[in-house]
TrEMBL record:
Catalytic class of the enzyme: ligase
GO BP, sorted A to Z: tRNA modification
Keywords for this protein: ATP-binding, Chloroplast, Ligase, Nucleotide-binding, Plastid, tRNA processing
Catalytic reaction list: cytidine(34) in tRNA(Ile2) + L-lysine + ATP = lysidine(34) in tRNA(Ile2) + AMP + diphosphate + H(+)
InterPro entries for this protein: Rossmann-like_a/b/a_fold, TilS/TtcA_N, tRNA_Ile_lys_synt, tRNA_Ile_lys_synt_N
Keyword Phosphoprotein appears in the UniProt entry: no
One Pfam family of this chain: ATP_bind_3
Family, as annotated: Belongs to the tRNA(Ile)-lysidine synthase family.
Name of the protein described by the UniProt record: tRNA(Ile)-lysidine synthase, chloroplastic
Function text: Ligates lysine onto the cytidine present at position 34 of the AUA codon-specific tRNA(Ile) that contains the anticodon CAU, in an ATP-dependent manner. Cytidine is converted to lysidine, thus changing the amino acid specificity of the tRNA from methionine to isoleucine.
Entry superkingdom: Eukaryota
A GO CC term assigned to this protein in UniProt: chloroplast
Entry-linked CDD domains: TilS_N (cd01992)
Length: 318
C-alpha cells in the first residue's frame, strides 16, 4: 500500500531535490523510527523511481546495547537483497562534533568506494526545529539556524540529501506503527545532560502549550522564508572574496573590504582566514582585526601559527 507519505517522498525527490531516475543513493541508517521509515519508503518506491539503494550503518560503541543493536540492524537488512556496509568505531571518548565528523567521513569514503551519487539521512522537520532552537540558544550566527537543508554538496560529486525534511515526528510515528516496523529505542534520548533532549522533551512542549501550538509549522515557515536571505549573503560573500583576493598570494585587499557592509566584512574575513588557515575563529578575534584595520592601528597578529601582516593595501597570511 502506498500512503500519503510515499507520495510526499516522491514529490520531495523530484521537486525539492530534483533527483533524476537511475541515480544511486546510500541510505545512512540507524534502527530508530526516522531511519526505518526512510528505509521502508525507499524500498516501496524503488521500482517507481528506478533508484539504486545501499545501506550504511555505524556502530559508535557508546551505549551498552550497541552490539545487540547492530545485530538487530543486521537482522533487518539481511533479507533485503541490498548492498550494506556496517562499521564500528572504537569506544574512545569523543565529543559529539568529533563523532559527527568521523561519521560523515565514513559516509563519504563508502560512497566513493562503491560509486554512490548521494547519501541520504533521515532528518525530519522536527530535527530542523530542534536544530534551529539549539543554535539560537547557543547564540550562533544566522547561518547556523539553517543547519539542516534539503541538499548540499558533501564531497566533489557526492550530494547529501534529506528526503524527509518536511516529515513531522507524528507522521513518522504513525507510519512506523501502521507497518509495525521493528524500532529500537535509544535510551540515551532520555538523558537530559544532552542539550537536544531537554529541548525536545521540555522546551518544545512548553512553547507549544503556552506560545504557539503549531510551533513546528511556523518555525519551518520562518526557516523557508529566511533561507534565500542567507543564500544571498553567502553568494555576496563569495563574490566579494573573489573580487578582492590577491591574484598570486594569500591576501585580500582590505581597503576594498572596508567599503562593504559590516556583515560582508565579517563574512569575507572569516572566509579568508578559515579557508586558507583551516581553523575556527572566534567572533572576538574577527572584530578585533576589523577594528584595527578601520583605525589604521593594525599590529601583527599570530593565531594558531598563522601570521597576519599588512603591506600597502593587502592583508597577508604568512
Amino acid at each position: 500500500m502506498h500512503s500519503f507519505l510515499h507520495c510526499k517522498l516522491i514529490q520531495n525527490l523530484y521537486h525539492e531535490l530534483k533527483i533524476d531516475k537511475g541515480k544511486s543513493i546510500l541510505l545512512a541508517l540507524s534502527s530508530g523510527q526516522d531511519s526505518l521509515c526512510l528505509l521502508k519508503l525507499f524500498i516501496d518506491i524503488q521500482n517507481i523511481t528506478d533508484i539504486t539503494l545501499g545501506i550504511v550503518n555505524i556502530d559508535h560503541q557508546c551505549r551498552q546495547d550497541s552490539t545487540i543493536n547492530t545485530k538487530h540492524i543486521g537482522n533487518i537488512i539481511k533479507n533485503l537483497n541490498m548492498p550494506s556496509y556496517i562499521y564500528q568505531l572504537q569506544p574512545n571518548q569523543y565529543s559529539e562534533a568529533e563523532f559527527r565528523d568521523m561519521r560523515y567521513q565514513i559516509y563519504i569514503n563508502t560512497a566513493l568506494r562503491y560509486s554512490y551519487d548521494m547519501i541520504a539521512t533521515a532528518h525530519t522537520s522536527t530535527d530542523r526545529l530542534e536544530t534551529c532552537l539549539n543554535n539560537l540558544l547557543k547564540g550562533h550566527n544566522f547561518d547556523s539556524l539553517h543547519g539542516l537543508v534539503w541538499k548540499r554538496k558533501l564531497y566533489c560529486n557526492i550530494d547529501l540529501i534529506r528526503p524527509l525534511l518536511n516529515f513531522t515526528r507524528m507522521e513518522i510515528s504513525w507510519f512506523c506503527n501502521y507497518h509495525a516496523l521493528p524500532i529500537w529505542f535509544d535510551y540515551t534520548n532520555l538523558h537530559y545532560q544532552h542539550r537536544r533532549n531537554r529541548i525536545r522533551y521540555e522546551l518544545v512542549p512548553y512553547l507549544q502549550q503556552y506560545y504557539q501550538q503549531d510551533l513546528e509549522k511556523h518555525i519551518t515557515k520562518f526557516l523557508d522564508n529566511t533561507y534565500y536571505d542567507m543564500e544571498y549573503l553567502r553568494q555576496q560573500t563569495i563574490k566579494t572574496y573573489y573580487n578582492i583576493k590577491h591574484p598570486h598570494y594569500i591576501a585580500i585587499n582590505y581597503h576594498i573590504l572596508l567599503r562593504q557592509h559590516v556583515n560582508i566584512q565579517i563574512r569575507v574575513l572569516n572566509l579568508f582566514l578559515t579557508y586558507n588557515g583551516t581553523i575556527t575563529l572566534t567572533e572576538q578575534f574577527i572584530n578585533k582585526v576589523l577594528k584595527q584595520l578601520k583605525n589604521n592601528t593594525y599590529s601583527q597578529q599570530i593565531l594558531f601559527n598563522l601570521r597576519l601582516n599588512i603591506y600597502q593595501s593587502w592583508l597577508y597570511i604568512k
